[in-house]
Amino acid sequence: MKLLRHAMIGALFAAVSAGPALAADYTIRLSHGDNENNPTHKGAVKFEELAEKYSDGRIDVQIFPNNQLGSEQEVAQALRTGSIEAEVLYTGNLVPLAPSVGVMMLPYAFTSNDEAHAAMDALKDPLNERLPKEAGVRILGYFEKGFRVLTNSKREVKTLDDLQGLKIRVSKNNIAIETFKSWGLDPIPMAWAEVFPALQQGVIDGQENPYTTSISSKFYEVQKYITEIHYLIWSGPIIISERFYQGLPADLQEALDRAGEEAAVYEREVSATETDKAMKELVKLGMVLSGAPTDEEKWQSAAKALWPSFSDDIGGKEWVDKASGIMEKAIK
Ligand code: MLT
User: Fold this and answer.
1) How far apart are the C-alpha atoms of 151 and 195, rounded to whole Å?
2) What is the pTM of this model?
3) CA 228 to CA 152: how far, in whole Å?
4) What is the DSSP string of 134-172?
5) Whose CA is nearest to atom 4 of ligand 1?
6) How far, in Å, CA of 41 to CA of 31, rounded?
7) What SS3 class is residue 302?
8) pLDDT in tens, 55-87
9) Are the C-beta atoms of residues 87 and 239 closer than 8 Å to each other?
10) Is the CB of 213 under 6 A from ligand 1?
11) Which helix (H) or strand (E) holds 42?
């Protein structure tokens, strides 16, 4: 009898403690376009953990990978109205909505990951003076995944000549399109979610993204050759709807800012480790890694000659001059 009574008390206690968790005061749906094996997702999970911790559970972060809530650009538009709260996306997919962020995309602006980190950290506050007005979003932290390397299914690309005639997908923004045009191509702008099927069906021959993406998105199944071009580092902010952010008490805004910055530090470390692993793994999986083009100075001078023509696409000359000064100072 005594045992039964203990068992009943135990069951009652278990039921109470396993009951519904106290609801958070705020829910953040965080969208991104990669799968769970990509550094972007790992950084997003770290952001979730830190945001919930620093808000003492008053904020609940729910992550939606794989473009489940819409394409990167569609979700960024939804952030403006606050119908979705947050997103991590490639800078190139944000530029059409928030031109000022395009200063991170000037081709050959950075020669290393460290330079990109210094620039993105120094630009966070100046960008947050502009992005709420431009796009109704603000940056909480900046992820980075290394150089966007070129993959294709047709041939080894070691020079600009080898590149000619390939059908290469680029993200939907003018800087990427014009850069590839300066290299003699007619690039194909396409939403990220459509890239794998397009490679599989031969609609395109190639694309450019970090080494880790060739692993997480299984590009090795449909691509053979990788050329390590250094025109652009994959940078991607965690952005939050300005409308949602302004509706939060100050202590929760601080919690999110802190979580965003720390998640970015974590993601950059994960990405560096996984990039090294991915390069070895891709060779094992049969891909040919050709290193940098032997004539990369030609790629560089063609792309850099475009800088003045990009001013209007990335916030105007005054902003570009200011941002370039900030970046140069941060990198030194
Ligand atoms: C793109 O190429 O559109 C992006 O780099 C994809 C991504 O966000 O990983």
Assistant:
1) 12
2) 0.92
3) 12
4) HHSEEEEEEEEEEE-EEEESS----SHHHHTT--BEE-S
5) 90
6) 10
7) helix
8) 999 999 999 999 999 999 999 999 999 999 999
9) yes
10) yes
11) helix 39-54
